[in-house]
Amino acid sequence: MDHHDEDIDEKTLSALLLRKLGGMPNNHLPVLTLADIVNQTPKATHFPHIPADLQLAYFLANRAAINRCRNRYHVLAIKDAAEQSLTLTRAIFFYRLDPLHQFARYHDSARWNTAIFVALVSAPTSTNPYTAYHLPPAGRRFGLAYLNAVIETHNEPSVFTRREAFVQLWKESAYDFFHVERPSQQKFLRNQMRRLKRAWEQELDEARRQMGSGRYARRVGPLVGALFPGRADQATGVSIAAPQVGPPGVDGGGSAKWRGPVEKDRNELLRALRVPLEDETGQGFIEDHRARMMEYSTVVSIPAALDAVKNSSPRDMLTTLLALY
């Protein structure tokens, strides 16, 4: 390859890398350049908050397969193992590509689902299975498993036990997350999130006053920013931003030092990056995938879930959560 072809190839690969790393929240991964791929720098070869078999080489090689799952609702995760392997589903969850199917409080849909499940597991539930407010035992287990996964994400990002368990449960369960589509319901939830944010901040100040700073930091602090909102001074969990590798402020990538064909072939990251990423919009897959989504149910109806959020009290929810955790 002469120098001119090499420059064209670098530009093409840099653009491809940018596209393949798109669609996830800022700071979920460290900033990566083509030089990091070519030189296989530490920040490209190991993400502490991603399982070992889902590291960057797997993600780059399979980004096209992930994109083909997308529909107009921006849903990527599919329960049916015949349509999407467990490994691919895990990658979607851990790389936070699907606003609905993930464990961090970044997208509205994730915050809404966390608030709904916290409200549901904290509220008195009807034992009559024919009422809208009955939370089946399996539904409660599903909700608690999800909340456990959220706590792990925010407090133990390099431990994957509870998240792996939830993805497996989600894959096999008849339950799914709450997909709130109606503008009126979305507006309602946004208003409730504002109400709850103020109420949680007041309740957390009172809890710290009553419990003392030490006990509060151990019991309550790790839940702030994970299961419910609060000010930065009210939280004691760890950040879920991508860990930095190497000295702060130093770009370990350097320049893309191209080597001979044999060495390039041995570069797993470069091989994975070269896997084509077609312009895939998911059109033609929309109706079929939407029909499959309808085969699964939520633990309660959406109106019942919204009522649970409306009637939720931070004091009651905190009492329940402290008993659980």
How would you characterize the overall build of this protein?
By secondary structure, the protein is mainly alpha-helical. The chain has one domain (42-244, 261-324). 53% of the residues lie in helices and 0% in strands. It contains 15 helices and no strands. It has helices at residues 3-20, 34-39, 42-45, 56-67, 86-94, 108-122, 137-155, 161-172, 183-211, 213-219, 261-265, 268-274, 286-293, 302-310, 314-324. Helix 7 runs antiparallel to helix 8. It is globular, with a radius of gyration of 22 Å.
**How many domains, in number, for the residues?**
1
Number of strands: 0
Number of helices: 15
Rg over CA atoms, rounded to whole Å, is: 22 Å
Order of helices and strands: HHHHHHHHHHHHHHH
Please mark out the parts with pLDDT under 50 across 5 or more consecutive residues, or reply none.
1-8, 240-253, 281-287
Helicity, in percent? 40-55%
Biggest sheet architecture: none
Average pLDDT, rounded to a whole number, is 86
